[in-house]
Amino acid sequence: MKALLELSNVGMQFDTPKGSFEALKDVNLKIADGEFVSLIGHSGCGKSTVLNIVAGLLHSTDGGVILDKQEVTEPGPERAVVFQNHSLLPWLTSFENVELAVKQVFKKTKSRAEIRDWVEHNLELVHMAHAMHKKPDEISGGMKQRVGIARALAMQPQVLLMDEPFGALDALTRAHLQDSLMEIHAQLGTTVIMITHDVDEAVLLSDRIVMMTNGPSATIGEILDVKVPRPRDRLALADDPTFVRCRQQVLQFLYEKQRKVEPLPKRTDAETGAVRKRA
Amino acid sequence: MVTLTFPTWMEPYRALATGKVSRDQWQALMRQLLWPVLGIGLFLLLWQFAAQRIDTSLGQFPGPAQVWEQAGNLVSEHQQSREREVAFYERQEKYIAARLQQQPDWEPVTRDYTGAPTFFDQIGTSLITVMSGFLLASMIAIPLGIVIGLSSTVHAAVNPLVQLFKPVSPLAWLPLVTMVVSALYVSDDPMVSKSFLTSMFTVSLCCLWPTLMNTAVGVTSVSQDLTNVSRVLRLNALSHVRKIVLPSALPMMFTGLRLSLGIAWMVLIAAEMLAQNPGLGKFVWDEFQNGSSQSLGRIMVAVIVIGLIGFLLDRLMLMLQRALVWDKASAQR
Ligand SMILES: Nc1ncnc2c1ncn2[C@@H]1O[C@H](COP(=O)(O)OP(=O)(O)OP(=O)(O)O)[C@@H](O)[C@H]1O
Ligand SMILES: [Mg+2]
């Protein structure tokens, strides 16, 4: 397999007031061009840390990341990020938000008219052409996330990095956006790394699911190949044996092999009483 | 984008005119009109009541009626002064024309009218001074605040000084500023008077701080997410400041500017009183020294006008803020 992106022996130690904390240890992963990879794992295991290291927003303390034969040292538009909470500039319209990115990446290679067309094209891709000139606080959460995706796609990245892109959305909007994302991935063939908490989402979208063990010193526990042919249809897949088996395997990993062994904090009667009163 | 729409608060009045007033609109009318008018009315009654019981060495403390009368006097004095000024220039022109007829080679010398400034002249002077002082302060405070917010080194270096000078009263600065201006501003043909500069610098020194602090805080509190966007896009330092930092800091900056303008106005009146620099403060001081039976009434007029102008200046800033700032929630009050 020819790898576009390679993480080798990535480790991450954070300096905390209580001494150093090893979040990641020996993370090894190869991702091929055009692949759709999901990262799944319990909260706090280090998924965002992995993604931020690939993005260049964090520097790993051990090992390194190589993209297309070059070591990753800083953030850049060839590794566009879709942030969990959209991160649109609130004072710019959807169009202007995407335009800022396009101008930055293509200012030397595209004319003014080409830039405008490219911005519009990407907003159309995520079905946001109708609200191009609205500001973020005038559109819904799902629409904001679409604009965030359009902004990332418009940079024509080699790898698209998404940190729980649909985490804050309701189930219906989420399903819509997942379909849009599959459509776009089929059309553009962009390499994608997506963090998710949602097992169905991971199985539906991914070529491979990377399952992480619990921290501290988290690493990759298992990698699952999702051999479901594309295009995938969420309704037809519900009874597809391969799909069901994959889903089963991920659930098993998360809830049997990597069960969170945190006991629920015990509440005293006084506390629960107080909570009830307030509610 | 600035949109001019029919203001919603005017809706009840339109309804009142057409005669169809809903329950909510009645409530809005009471809130906007009835209660404030009642409040002011009650205040006037209390004032009248209290004034009758206070005898000062300058006579009885003026009640609303006397103050209203003095306001009228101040207006007519201003009109008279303007008429005298016009008359003066007419006489001067006539004199020059007549003399030139007799003596065609005479070089005419014109003189400016030198009447005592009226109440309204003093208002004008104060407004110009406060605006100049405020603009100067903003021109220093905004860039400095940005630098402090961007660099923790600069912040560490400047912060002790800011904390030290921030609480200083204008009265403490005034003698120093006066002496420094007299020493440094020596010119045969001065463009502006020394007293103007003294007042202006004192105002600037005192109203610098809120803008400075708020700008710095606004700049430091740019969200980490937006900074990450800027890093992924590889914006250079200048674009980062222009495209990300400044717009995010703008709401805080405006909060600071509004506070600063309020302080500037308060400080100016005090400075003018103390330094006898032209302006509303000097008007108050002169009336106090003058000590006629009308003085207290005239001072009371000045007090009300000072309050009114302060209020209008604040509204002006609020309008500017609403027009310029993207974060409408920060520009509510
Ligand atoms: N800057 C930091 N300093 C210290 N510890 C950190 C820092 N960032 C992350 N950590 C720790 O590293 C671990 C992994 O964090 P990370 O945010 O990557 O988890 P995650 O898998 O993305 O969790 P979630 O699903 O809740 O987003 C956590 O235990 C967290 O406390
Ligand atoms: Mg995370």
Structure description:
The complex is a heterodimer of chains A (279) and B (333). Chain A has helices at residues 47-55, 94-106, 112-125, 141-154, 171-188, 199-205, 234-237, 241-257, 269-278, and strands at residues 3-16, 19-32, 36-40, 62-67, 70-71, 79-82, 159-163, 191-195, 208-212, 220-225. Chain A is of the alpha/beta class. Chain A folds into two domains: 1-74 and 159-166 and 191-279, P-loop containing nucleotide triphosphate hydrolases (Rossmann fold, 3-Layer(aba) Sandwich), CATH 3.40.50; 81-156, no CATH class. Residues 271-279 of chain A have low confidence and may be disordered. Chain B is an all-alpha fold and 333 residues long. Chain B has a domain at 126-184 and 191-327: MetI-like (MetI-like fold), CATH 1.10.3720. Chain B is 76% helix and 1% strand. Chain B is built from eleven helices and two strands, in the order ααββααααααααα. Chain B has helices at residues 11-18, 23-51, 64-102, 119-150, 152-165, 170-184, 194-220, 224-232, 237-275, 280-290, 295-324; strands at 55-56, 59-60. In chain B, strands 1-2 form a two-stranded antiparallel ribbon. In chain B, helix 1 (11-18) packs across helix 2, helix 4 (119-150) runs antiparallel to helix 9 and helix 9 (237-275) packs antiparallel against helix 11. The mean pLDDT of chain B is 89. Bound molecules: adenosine-5'-triphosphate and magnesium ion. Adenosine-5'-triphosphate (ATP) is lined by residues 14, 16, 21, 23, 41, 43-49, 215 of chain A.
List the helices and strands and how they pair.
The complex is a heterodimer of chains A (279) and B (333).
Chain A: E1 3-16, E2 19-32, E3 36-40, H1 47-55, E4 62-67, E5 70-71, E6 79-82, H2 94-106, H3 112-125, H4 141-154, E7 159-163, H5 171-188, E8 191-195, H6 199-205, E9 208-212, E10 220-225, H7 234-237, H8 241-257, H9 269-278
Parallel strand pairs in A: 3-8, 3-9, 6-7, 7-8
Antiparallel strand pairs in A: 1-2, 1-4, 4-5, 9-10
Helix pairs in contact in A: 2-3, 2-4, 3-4, 6-8
Chain B: H1 11-18, H2 23-51, E1 55-56, E2 59-60, H3 64-102, H4 119-150, H5 152-165, H6 170-184, H7 194-220, H8 224-232, H9 237-275, H10 280-290, H11 295-324
The structure holds adenosine-5'-triphosphate and magnesium ion (MG).
Residues 14, 16, 21, 23, 41, 43-49, 215 of chain A line the site of adenosine-5'-triphosphate (ATP).
